[in-house]
Design brief:
- There is one protein chain.
- The protein is mainly alpha-helical and about 240 residues long.
- Helix content is about 40%, strand content about 5%.
- The longest helix is centred in the N-terminal third of the chain and has 20 residues, at about 25-45.
- The chain is globular, with a radius of gyration of 22 Å.
- The termini are far apart.
- Residues about 1-10 have low confidence and may be disordered.
């Protein structure tokens, strides 16, 4: 961040302007960085550091499109072509866990259901706990994990390794690049729940969304979405 001239008040959007010039990054990526920057400045203020008064505005996004998700056929291809990691993928697809939630999932929190716990040290995004039923494929996947330690997911793996493993598996089976993110499993979980007719409120609870508005991005996948909306309507 450049220091403003002495004649300029210490109120500037220079930080966000710098990020806006990073045209290679998507607005969501830039905004995440800005959120971290604002948190750092606020923490510095609380710790009594002298911090200039900056106005850091987020970058608006004008994109509007459905989130990508895996089809059932694509999931089978991934399971069949990732001999060392298929159980990671299957558990994520059948629970909607975020990658960070999977990494922080303790063995003691896997009982008759999976309990996603939020603590001061390891908070969930909504800062609330939730529970997810264990279906047949979730159990099948859990049976492949070493549950003798504290955590379900091996803590020895680099945080980015699941993303790398998924990318390689997608490349092997020819899945479109737009689906190479681990978060696609979460979209897959939500999308197939809605397509199977589950209420949005149920999907919200399973995903741990703080607001139903976040869950409504999947509403277009509901079997009865817009059904009958143009009945007896002709221009």
């Amino acid at each position: 961040i450049r220091r403003p001239p002495r004649s300029t008040p210490l109120y500037s959007s220079a930080a966000s302007d710098v990020y806006k010039r990073q045209r290679k990054n998507k607005p969501a990526t830039i905004n995440r960085k800005i959120t971290v920057l604002k948190a750092m400045l606020n923490k510095a203020k609380r710790d009594k550091y002298k911090v200039p008064h900056l106005s850091v505005s987020k970058v608006p996004s004008f994109e509007s499109k459905p989130h990508p998700f895996f089809s059932l056929e694509e999931l089978e291809l991934l399971y069949d072509n990732a001999p060392s990691h298929w159980h990671w993928f299957m558990l994520l697809a059948n629970t909607g866990l975020r990658l960070g939630e999977l990494r922080n999932l303790r063995v003691v929190d896997v009982k008759d259901k999976i309990y996603v716990i939020s603590t001061n040290q390891r908070r969930t995004k909504s800062k609330k706990w939730r529970m997810i039923p264990i279906n047949e494929n979730s159990q099948k996947a859990l049976n492949q994990f070493d549950l003798s330690g504290e955590y379900v997911f091996p803590q020895s793996f680099n945080k980015q390794y699941p993303t790398t493993a998924l990318t390689r598996a997608c490349q092997r089976v020819g899945i479109d690049k737009s689906k190479w993110g681990v978060h696609t499993f979460r979209h897959t979980f939500a999308s197939h729940l809605v397509m199977s007719g589950k209420p949005l409120k149920t999907v919200q609870e399973l995903l741990g969304h703080a607001s139903i508005k976040t869950t409504e991005i999947y509403s277009h996948l509901a079997p009865d979405y817009l059904e009958g909306s143009l009945d007896n309507f002709n221009l």
